[in-house]
Amino acid sequence: MPGETNIPPPRDRHVSKVHIADTPITLRNWHKHVNWLNVTMIVLIPLYGCIQAFWTPLRLKTAIWAVAYYFFTALGVTAGYHRLWAHRSYTATLPLRIILALAAGGSVQGSARWWARLHRSHHRYTDTERDPYSVHKGIFYAHFGWMILKQNPKRFGRTDISDLNADPVVVWQHRHFLKIVILMGLVVPMVVAGLWDDWWGGFVYAGILRIFFVQQATFCVNSLAHWLGEQPFDDRNSPRDHVVTALATMGEGYHNFHHEFPSDYRNAIRWYQYDPTKWAIWCWGQVGLARDLKMFRENEIEKGRLQQLQKKVDRKRAELDWGTPLSELPVMEWEEFVERAKSRALVVVAGVVHDVEDFLKEHPGGKAMIQAGVGKDATAMFNGGVYYHSNAAHNLLSMMRVAVIRGGCEVEAWKRPQKEV
Ligand SMILES: [Zn+2]
Ligand SMILES: [Zn+2]
């Protein structure tokens, strides 16, 4: 028939497929929930390396090479993926960008484009449903559970990565990622150890096990750095500062500072704190490989620290009893105060009536001194006229307050207009 087409009826066309991540895990479908590629990369291959290590002798030269290569590839992630591409905390020359892209490729943690995009999402949506590795879903989930289980990419918070797409090194690394992983992750560590005839040792220790340690160290930034330590700059979200995390992550452990000042090229701001990534970037800056190292002004950093300190002080203050708040005290006429003071020891200090009956005997200056103020405005006496009382005395006095005087104090000129009204 003319005009007839094969387009299915609208009802069928609009059936959207539910992502496996949005279905509950059951005994029958659990294997569909598992991201088997990631499990191979971060669980099965490291497990194979651990088993091989049992009968592969570790030679000293290979051990030194493995540690050195660990630092090199970890720096690719911390200085490259994280501080350069995810946060733009400095600009790097083309040779440095190529070296960082290769080094980070050898740590086997996805491409710079993938890594930095998710990390921007993590910063923008920290601790929410849209945070790709929110610690609120559990420390195991933040560490690597989010990679082991398939994720619905639509659920991750969206971020702008136009700058990453405009960087030819990022695009090149993303396009040739698998080749770079094999070359930098396994071939280079093997070939270098081959110089002293330890090809297999190089493969197991500088290759597989080194990859395992770099991966775990990076994962600690998402788990440990959101779980262990202090919050000197802001406590509304989970990031924390701790030296242990810093030691494990090339200085990324000052994570509370980092989440507050993400485009600062430093994570540790004190010279004695461990941040080799910062030291490396600074050195590159000295030799012209890096430029525009961004730093927040000390004044802004101190503001944050002080506000957090103030919050702690306020919380502590709220735990203590400071006496009945002035706004909750009844208002008393001066004449009523004078009348009541005849039967009970009441004194007025700074417009507030205090009941000192039970304190007469305990007064360090003697009963007579305090009695001299009963039924009177003792403000001047209390504040230096007779004795300049301590801070503790002021605090103690505030515990005895029972009323406020209408008009504030005994001044006749103030009382008169009120009476006339
Ligand atoms: Zn974080
Ligand atoms: Zn970050």
Automatic annotation (TrEMBL):
<dbReference type="InterPro" id="IPR005804">
    <property type="entry name" value="FA_desaturase_dom"/>
</dbReference>
<keyword id="KW-0472">Membrane</keyword>
<dbReference type="Pfam" id="PF00487">
    <property type="entry name" value="FA_desaturase"/>
</dbReference>
<dbReference type="InterPro" id="IPR001199">
    <property type="entry name" value="Cyt_B5-like_heme/steroid-bd"/>
</dbReference>
<dbReference type="InterPro" id="IPR001522">
    <property type="entry name" value="FADS-1_CS"/>
</dbReference>
<dbReference type="InterPro" id="IPR036400">
    <property type="entry name" value="Cyt_B5-like_heme/steroid_sf"/>
</dbReference>
<comment type="similarity">
    <text>Belongs to the fatty acid desaturase type 1 family.</text>
</comment>
<keyword id="KW-0408">Iron</keyword>
<dbReference type="Pfam" id="PF00173">
    <property type="entry name" value="Cyt-b5"/>
</dbReference>
<keyword id="KW-0560">Oxidoreductase</keyword>
<keyword id="KW-0275">Fatty acid biosynthesis</keyword>
<dbReference type="GO" id="GO:0005506">
    <property type="term" value="F:iron ion binding"/>
</dbReference>
<keyword id="KW-0812">Transmembrane</keyword>
<dbReference type="InterPro" id="IPR018506">
    <property type="entry name" value="Cyt_B5_heme-BS"/>
</dbReference>
<feature type="transmembrane region" description="Helical">
    <location>
        <begin position="94"/>
        <end position="116"/>
    </location>
</feature>
<dbReference type="GO" id="GO:0020037">
    <property type="term" value="F:heme binding"/>
</dbReference>
<keyword id="KW-0443">Lipid metabolism</keyword>
<keyword id="KW-0479">Metal-binding</keyword>
<keyword id="KW-1133">Transmembrane helix</keyword>
<keyword id="KW-0444">Lipid biosynthesis</keyword>
<comment type="function">
    <text>Stearoyl-CoA desaturase that utilizes O(2) and electrons from reduced cytochrome b5 to introduce the first double bond into saturated fatty acyl-CoA substrates.</text>
</comment>
<keyword id="KW-0813">Transport</keyword>
<dbReference type="GO" id="GO:0004768">
    <property type="term" value="F:stearoyl-CoA 9-desaturase activity"/>
</dbReference>
<keyword id="KW-0349">Heme</keyword>
<feature type="transmembrane region" description="Helical">
    <location>
        <begin position="177"/>
        <end position="196"/>
    </location>
</feature>
<feature type="transmembrane region" description="Helical">
    <location>
        <begin position="62"/>
        <end position="82"/>
    </location>
</feature>
<dbReference type="InterPro" id="IPR015876">
    <property type="entry name" value="Acyl-CoA_DS"/>
</dbReference>
<feature type="domain" description="Cytochrome b5 heme-binding">
    <location>
        <begin position="342"/>
        <end position="406"/>
    </location>
</feature>
<keyword id="KW-0249">Electron transport</keyword>
<dbReference type="InterPro" id="IPR009160">
    <property type="entry name" value="Acyl-CoA_deSatase_haem/ster-bd"/>
</dbReference>
<protein>
    <recommendedName>
        <fullName>Acyl-CoA desaturase</fullName>
        <ecNumber>1.14.19.1</ecNumber>
    </recommendedName>
</protein>
<keyword id="KW-0276">Fatty acid metabolism</keyword>
<feature type="transmembrane region" description="Helical">
    <location>
        <begin position="36"/>
        <end position="55"/>
    </location>
</feature>
<dbReference type="GO" id="GO:0006636">
    <property type="term" value="P:unsaturated fatty acid biosynthetic process"/>
</dbReference>
<dbReference type="GO" id="GO:0005789">
    <property type="term" value="C:endoplasmic reticulum membrane"/>
</dbReference>
